[in-house]
Amino acid sequence: MTRADDSGYEITSMSKRRPSLVPTLGLPFASGLRVHDAPIHGANVAVSEAIEMIVRHSRFSRIRVFIGPDQERRPVEQWLGRIRPISEEGEPGLAIEHPAMLAHEPLGRLDAWHSVTGHGTQGRHLRSMTSARFPVTAVHHSFAANDQLHDWVLRFLLEDVRAYDSQIATSQSNVESFQRSLQHVKRALAGPLDRALPYRGRVDRIPLGVDTKIFRPRDKAEVRYELGLPRDELLVLWVGRLSAAGKADLVPALGAMAEVMQRTRRPMRLVVGGVDREGFGAVMEKHARNLGIAERLWLQTPVPPVQRHLWHAAADVFISPADSMQETFGLTCVEAMACGVPQLVSDWDGYRDTVVDGVTGYLVPTTWIDSDRDIGTMAPFGEWSRDHFALAQSVVVDMHVFRERLLTLVEDDELRLRLGRASRARAVEHYDWAAIVARYDDLWEELGSMARRAARERRRPLHYLVSRYVHTNRGNATRMIDTKARIVLSARGQRVVDGEEGLPEYFKRGRYQLDYDLIEDALVSLGSRGQTIEKIARAIAAERRVHHDKAVRHVVWLLKYDLARLVAT
Q1: Which of 29, 109, 187, 555 has the most other CB atoms within 10 Å of its CB?
Q2: Contact, 273 vs 301, CB < 8 A?
Q3: Strands (DSSP E) along 351-401, which ranges?
Q4: Cα gap 452→291, rounded to integer Å
């Protein structure tokens, strides 16, 4: 069924499908995400692991994973299908689907829609096209890039956000960043629009999780032997992105490390591992040589993501003097915590939510200053990493406190053991993925109950995301035709129908594909007397269960390839 909006565009009704009694979660999967070998970047790790852990632990009986247009279904089925069995429509289990199919098939049951990358637009758009009522939730990892003000924040004010939707922040600072971003955009637009745009949704806080069965304390001697690390030294670990723009400037910390090495008799080494795309490792090596501790620095780049847990388990102390706005949660802190390793980190953003000062480790005070007017004004012309670098250089991590806390941890074996035991207990109780997904399930249940009680939405949804490509660009063509146009087989088309010539099938595989079943049906339907484009399209669309306009495009393709010709009127 279709209905027309006031622009004359037909909007597919997706609300009719075989009724299902199985509670169902919709889970979009980010196109292009590397499932198993994503580099060590909190967002990459959190996104891929969140998808897997939701599939593994969620109380929803059925999960529909919507993959991107360039993604193949089979690898995702192999990855997630080993966790939850692939099932038939409406049955408990897992389904892997292409969202494009929803243009010509019913939507089916959805009780909640959740995006692990922060983009709830797809879920809200699907909902606005139907009479369905389900909550749309999304986890945002950062609001520190200028383009997000328009591409993300403005959409929260313009789109069909409802009272039972939620943007989920991973830390309290992230909650506040989102709220301040909303207020900034609302204030900026209130004058020109002569009205305030409301945000009708909620903001909830749920942290990222860690698999505590993998990230756990291990025999340090065995793990160090496996990794080739020194077995008789105290190891201080940094693991993550090596980036002075997107993570932390480690140069001051390296200076503090050198002082501690001079003051203790304990043999120790700084192990720095992760991904280095900016050449920051070379900066650290040069500074270590200048400090006379080059032989005390172990630089490991890259660290295979599947080995992260081993590097954490091998360490005695974990450090992270983060100073970048891009560091919004600090997943590596929680990973170290799960491995029973004390954390020495800056009192910065999500770190102060996860690390309990004096219990699991220590928080080092930070100082900042409001000095971004030049950068902020020109941000639309710039590139976020340069802005973040410039501002991170005005964040002061107290290296006096860092140095003294590190020295205490190095010298006191019993303290490290006590903090390590408390760390492990906190990680299991608060950050194990099973506990995190349970919090998601509780939130979806609460929001779903609100959605079921809510009155039918009377305000008209905004369809500005429905692109009208041809209407917008119709001036490109010499002329336009409509589906009343009549076409007949060309001489070449007749030869293809008679089997004297093959059908050109250059787009049967690969990224760009045509549906040659539709094309063959259209050829057979044509006949020598011809028919209108509309009649052929309706027939093959009904036979193949595809959208009317998809059928139209494939019929007109016959003209493009000289398999049919227009009948003059």
Answers
A1: 555
A2: yes
A3: 361-364, 366-367, 396-397
A4: 64
Residue 8: what residue type? Answer: G
Total domains, the chain: 3
CA-based nearest residue to 185, from 140, 144, 155: 155
Q: At what angle do helices 413-426 and 331-338 cross, to 10 degrees?
A: 110
Q: Among residues 534, 498, 339, 297, which one has the least CA distance to residue 423?
A: 339
Six token digits for residue 254: 């390296």
Q: Is the pTM of this model over 0.90?
A: no
Per DSSP (E only), the strands in 307-454 are: 317-320, 343-346, 361-364, 366-367, 396-397
Among the residue ranges 84-93, 132-141, 372-381, 488-497, the one predicted with the least confidence is 372-381
Adjacency order of strands within the sheet including 531-532: 531-532, 486-489, 564-566
| Average pLDDT of span 102-116 | 84
Q: Which of 408, 436, 38, 60 is nearest to 212 (CA)?
A: 436
| Angstrom distance (rounded) from CA 314 to CA 525 | 69
CA atoms within 13 A on the CB side of 46: 29
In a domain, 379, yes or no: yes
Q: What is the token pair recorded at 400?
A: 């006096």
Give residue 161's domain range: 2-209+438-453
Look at residue 551 and give its three-state secondary structure: helix
pLDDT at residue 19, rounded to an integer: 53
Alpha carbon distances (Å) from 210 to 52, 65, 213, 286: 12, 22, 9, 34
Report the Cα–Cα distance between both ends of the chain, in Å, rounded.
32
Let me know whether 340 and 300 are in one domain. Answer: yes
Closest CA to 387 of 174, 145, 182: 145
pLDDT, mean over the chain? 89
Residue 471 domain flag: no
Strands (E), 72-230: 93-97, 112-115, 136-140, 166-169, 202-205
* CB contact burial 197-232 (16+ within 10 A = b; e otherwise): eebebbbbebbbbbbbeebbbbebeebbeebebeee
**DSSP H or E stretch at residue 532:** strand 531-532
The set of residues, in sequence order, having a beta carbon less than 8 Å from that of 491 and lying 6+ positions away, is: none
Which whole number is the average pLDDT over 481-491?
93
Spell 413-442 as b/e; 16+ CB within 10 A means b: eeebeebbebbbebbbebbbbebbbebbbe
Q: Count Cβ atoms below 10 Å from residue 358 Cβ, excluding itself.
A: 11
- The answer to whether residue 466 is domain-embedded is no
Residue 91 has phi, psi (to 5 degrees) of -100, 155
- Would you mind telling me the total number of residues written for the chain in this entry? 569
Structure tokens, 162: 């409802």
- Residue 279 in contact with residue 182, Cβ under 8 Å? no
Distance (Å, rounded) from C-alpha 174 to C-alpha 156?
Answer: 16
* Residue 222: alpha-carbon gap to chain centroid: 35
Looking at the fold, whether 205 and 348 belong to one and the same domain comes out as: no
300 and 364 in one domain? yes
Average pLDDT rounded to a whole number, residues 505-526: 87
